[in-house]
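User: Hey, quick favor. My workstation is busy. Could you predict this chain's structure for me?
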Amino acid sequence: MEKLEAASGEKVKFGDVVLLVDGGTVTTGDPAVAGAIVEGEVIEQFKDQKVIAFKYKRRKGYHRTIGHRRQLTRVKIRSIV
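Assistant: No problem, here it is.
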């Protein structure tokens, strides 16, 4: 997921749950399920693979390379309440 402001090993809570499945019961939120909380633990902060955007115009001598790497967070889900 996108980078969170939490260090490795910290516990995080997500309150905006859109879909909750409990056995055979499916609950959808409008826009979020009321009272549902997802608890997780931050495993690591890392960078995604490099994405390269190459612009080129033929016969003009124009080319430009732009690249970037997204900052991501790996989270392990512990419980859904």
